[in-house]
Amino acid sequence: MPRLVFTVIGDDRAGLVSALADVVTAHDGNWEDSQLAELAGKFAGIVVVGVPAERVDELTAALRGLDGLLEVTAHPGAEGAGVVADDADAQRLTIDLLGNDSPGIVREVSSVLSRRELSIETMTTETREAPMAGGLLFEAHVVVRVPGGSDTAALRADLERLATELLVDIAVA
């Protein structure tokens, strides 16, 4: 069954997920995976839907009926996506970062990961008021899949150096 990846965005209000799910179900689609959130008054996310091949065009056309409520863009999913190559030595590392907010934190952390040829599986970030110091705190939670044979000690050292440069706390588990 083909898979479609939807990107969705709209003004946040009740019923958005239900409206999208109604269209998916009406076209024999199966909601497989999603990451959805309210951000700055907008509701945004990514949804993976499996749909019978003969209904793909019909479902894609029906999504236009959500205009005004949600902007939905459908992208074809890659064949075999979601199936990770078998690497018995692979591990997942979780990187948690907390510190004063400043421009460039995500760029710096992602650059370290990119130089090590590591791909981010999930990343969540947020800013929030610093309880006693004033200003904003930046918090990130990143999960990366590390193939067997990768030098995790060097990765940890790179992240520790970065934490010192950025004046943030970084924990790797």
TrEMBL record:
CDD domains tied to this protein: ACT_GcvR_2
Pfam families tied to this protein: ACT_6 (PF13740)
SUPFAM superfamilies (alphabetical): ACT-like
Protein name, per record: Glycine cleavage system regulatory protein
Organism encoding this protein: Terrabacter aerolatus
Domain ACT: 94-173
Highest taxon in the source lineage: Bacteria
Transmembrane segment boundaries: none
GO BP, one annotated term: regulation of DNA-templated transcription
